Amino acid sequence: MSSDGCQSSGAARWALALLLILPAPAGAQGAARGVRLLPRVDVEFSWLRAYTPDLRFYWLADIGFDLDAMDYTTGRVRLRGHHEAVVGRERRRYDPNQANYAFDVAVSRRVGLVELSAVAQHASRHLLDREFPIAISWNAVGGRVGYASSGGLDLAVDVLKVWDRDFVDYTWTGRVAVGYERPVGPRARWFAAGAGDFVRGVAADRSKRSGVLLEGGVRLRGAAASLELFGRYERRLDAYPAERGRVRFSGIGFRVATGRR
Fold first, then answer.
1. 78-107 pLDDT, tens per residue?
2. Which phi and psi angles does 27 have, rounded to 5°?
């Protein structure tokens, strides 16, 4: 079995272990507690035109899902996944050069407006039309603290311990994400979001690294989904899979998403 396959199996084992943590109500007792299967399923697609001197980054496309597999009133089992494709102009006019995948499963408990989660995550990065003999992937487990207010403010903090990694030298990863939105009409909302990514690496010069993403725009509500028009600034950590370094770019794009209404 390939190293990447072993890592995927390891992530699956951690996901199963997290699921076993759940209090599994049985029969009428479970119904009384309000256990619901798949109460929320959201999908999204975004397309960004990037502006940077680095010719490897010209278009960025992302497709993802975010669903609650089970909601048991005091918490939920949440699954998320994303696939990002990066198209540059390094070799030709349209030059796909990388594809990135990330999946995580979280088991949570709600405490008022705060949600505490145990998280298992798998990330995998791949070069396209380029030779690179080493698998680029890692697994991580840790915790997440989330907060969502009725006033449109969302906050999430992740801290994850990395294990079973290939090529990357991460030992810990973290993310702080914040979002805010407010209505400006019956079918429109302004929104702003920001995120900071942090890693701790093995090498001395990689003891601490960080990236940042800032985004803002308008959301227009449709009959089945919402259309977002946004601008972005990003300083991406280890932006190219086979290199260790940051790339800065700005961009404009659109996103079609359910669940943001």
1. 999 999 999 999 999 999 999 999 999 999
2. 55, -135
Residue 90 and residue 99: Cα distance in Å, rounded?
16
Tell me the per-residue pLDDT of 114-142, one tens digit each, with 9 for 90 and over. 999 999 999 999 999 988 888 899 999 99
Query: Into how many domains does the chain fold?
Result: 1
d(C-alpha 85, C-alpha 254), whole Å: 15
Backbone angles phi, psi at 189, to 5 degrees: -140, 140
Angle at 98 between CA 93 and CA 102, to 5 degrees: 145
Coil/strand/helix, residue 249: strand
Residue 103 near residue 124, CB atoms below 8 Å: no
> Strand locations in the chain, DSSP E?
36-51, 59-71, 76-88, 95-111, 114-127, 136-148, 153-166, 170-185, 188-201, 209-221, 226-237, 246-257
Q: Which domain holds residue 93?
A: 3-257
User: Hunting for tokens 């702003």 — which residue is that?
Assistant: 192
Nearest to 209 by CA among 181, 183, 246: 246
Please give the radius of gyration of the chain, using alpha carbons only, rounded to the nearest integer. 19
* Residue 250 CB neighbour total at 10 angstroms: 14
* 86 alpha-carbon distance from chain centroid: 16
Residue with tokens 């396209």: 128
- Cβ atoms of residues 105 and 70 within 8 Å: no
Which CATH number characterizes residue 95's domain? Answer: 2.40.230.10
Instruction: Tell me, yes or no, if the pTM score tops 0.90.
Output: no
- The residues near 187 (Cβ < 8 Å, ≥ 6 apart) are 220, 221
Q: How many whole angstroms separate alpha carbon 177 and alpha carbon 229?
A: 20
